[in-house]
Amino acid sequence: MMEKAWWKLITFGFRLLYNEMAWTYDTVSWVVSLGQWRNWQQAALKHLGTQPGDLILELAHGTGNLQLDLYAAGYKRVAYDLSPYMGRIARRKLQRRHVVAPLVRGRAQQLPFPDQVFDAVISTFPTPFIIEMDTLQEVHRVLKPGQRLVIVPNGILTGGGIAKDVLEATYRATGQRGPWPVDLEQRFQEAGFEVQSLVELCPYSVAQVIVATRRD
């Protein structure tokens, strides 16, 4: 009974973070990663397999930080997120830096885009929607053949002393260090992808990266 109540509380807390409390997201992510969050996000970029000028879809764009990285790398971009709160924050952030990006609101399980239009899809620290079959089938549909979905699901601190130990205990308590609820390789294969799980070295930490390539 207590365990069930605990997980309901955790779920509620994450819902607040992505919605009504989205204004705290950048600060919270910095604190819980000891400043490594942006390094973990950027670890995905080298795996896109794309060129400047290509069109990239970001799923769950959050507060818009990765949109700034994609812009700096010369990509055309579409940003997609379900939360209207994240959308407002991202729009203001991009406008302050004079960056234009289409911000679209909706569910990843129903993408409002044509078939085979994107050169890559990227998502950093998404919730479990990212491995739902409906999501993967939609990503497969909008990706060009042979192109990639790149996900950063997690980052792990390798330095930080006592602070690292406390944060790791918190990650475990909130379910962020448990195994995936499905067989990832089988799930991606069923959706039409070949998948690799990689580790990228970052300062005082590592980022977990999943690269799923759409089969022709």
In short:
The protein is 38% helix and 26% strand.
Helix content: 25-40%
Q: H/E series, N to C?
A: HHHEHEHEEHEHHEE
Mean pLDDT: 90
The number of E-state strands comes to 7
Over the alpha carbons, how many angstroms does the gyration radius reach?
17 Å
CATH superfamily: Vaccinia Virus protein VP39
Overall structural domain count: 1
The CATH topology label is Rossmann fold
Question: Which structural class fits the helix and strand makeup?
Answer: alpha/beta
State the name of the first-level CATH class: Alpha Beta
Strand order, sheet with most strands:
3-2-1-4-5-7-6
- Characterize the biggest β-sheet: 7 strands, mixed
In percent terms, what proportion of residues is strand? 25-35%
* Distance N to C terminus: 48 Å
CATH architecture annotation name: 3-Layer(aba) Sandwich
Give the CA-based shape: globular
Give unreliable regions as ranges. none
Number of contiguous helices: 8
Structure commentary:
It is a single chain. The protein has 216 residues and is α/β, with parallel strands linked by helices. It has a single domain, classed as Vaccinia Virus protein VP39 (Rossmann fold, 3-Layer(aba) Sandwich), CATH 3.40.50. It is 38% helix and 26% strand. The chain has a seven-stranded mixed beta sheet, sandwiched between helices. α4 links the parallel β1 and β2.
List keywords for this structure.
alpha/beta; Rossmann fold
